[in-house]
Specification:
Length: 298
């Protein structure tokens, strides 16, 4: 029987091909829009677990992806995006932001050298209670199951020294991915406040105000109830300037800065697929995203 992950990968690949076709019918936008990509691990496990999502993008694939994006897009630091979208005229090239969730050490060891090669700015979202964690992250089932098959760098989190080195690169901004990576839909209001305020206080005290301005909601879907209006309000009240979800779409000048959509950059994404995503040829992905919602609702 075909494995769940094999099927998901086949669906993603098919959606990618369909997006490349859809791009032919996508009119260039007159108002500026931006594609905020999200990654997790930049690691090459050398195998695909048929049962669990791995969120791995091998460094060689990542290099190809960033090289392709550098050729046809303009990289913008996430925190500058709202301003860039507001100024008239925009850019001749699609605007792209790069984000990385969960704070894996391979962001520092694998992704940063490649980002540096193409001078691509990025935001790394870290879970403040798990910084320097020497065990697989408690919510990371793939790492817990496969830790003995891959080097620790594939799953351990960055420590404070890694984070300081990232900031010193001048390319990386740190943001919060909550304090404990709780599911928003299961949190009380008190827990939401703690997730937002505690993470910001820790980042401010250890790295400074500049590294405590952006927030990424864990599990980040408004459609699946992980990001509620209360959660967004709490993040704003805590003092963050913007927050990103995992809702599918491009960001525009009138997008709520506390509900910025993002698009996954997958290991299977070729340069053509990435280009289709950056210009908003997203119809096939809206379909697969909707199916995901239906399945989870059952
Ligand atoms: Zn996460």
């Amino acid at each position: 029987m075909i494995g769940r992950i094999t099927l998901k990968r086949a669906i993603k690949q098919t959606a990618g091909r369909a997006a490349v076709l859809a791009k032919l019918f996508t009119w260039p936008s007159v108002c500026p829009k931006a594609c905020i990509f999200f990654y997790h691990r930049i690691a090459d496990a050398g195998f695909v677990d048929p049962r669990l999502d791995d969120w791995n993008v091998p460094p060689s694939v990542f290099d190809q992806q960033i090289r392709a994006l550098a050729a046809f897009a303009e990289f913008v630091p996430l925190l500058e995006l709202p301003h860039r979208l507001r100024i008239s005229g925009g850019s001749a090239k699609p605007l792209v932001c790069l984000t990385f969730d969960d704070g894996y050490a391979n962001f520092y060891t694998q992704a940063l050298p490649i980002l540096n090669r193409y001078r691509a700015p990025a935001t790394a979202f870290v879970v403040t209670s798990l910084i320097g964690q020497k065990e697989p992250l408690p919510f990371d089932s793939w790492s817990q199951k496969n830790r003995s098959r891959v080097p620790p760098e594939a799953w351990r989190s960055m420590d404070w020294t890694d984070l300081e080195a990232c900031v010193a690169s001048g390319l990386v901004t740190i943001g919060a991915h909550s304090h404990s990576h709780l599911k928003g839909r299961e949190c009380t209001q008190t827990q939401l406040i703690e997730e937002a305020e505690e993470s910001r206080a820790i980042l401010r005290s250890r790295l400074g105000e500049a590294q405590a301005r952006a927030y990424a909601y864990p599990y980040g879907s408004t459609r699946l109830g992980q990001v509620s209006p209360d959660y967004a309000r709490t993040v704003r009240t805590a003092g963050y300037e913007l927050a990103v979800t995992t809702d599918l779409g491009l960001a525009r000048a009138d997008t709520d800065p506390y509900l910025l959509p993002r698009i996954e950059a997958h290991a299977l994404d070729t340069p053509s697929v990435l280009h289709a995503k950056t210009v908003g040829a997203l119809a096939p992905y809206y379909l697969t995203d909707h199916l995901r919602t239906v399945k989870r609702a059952l």
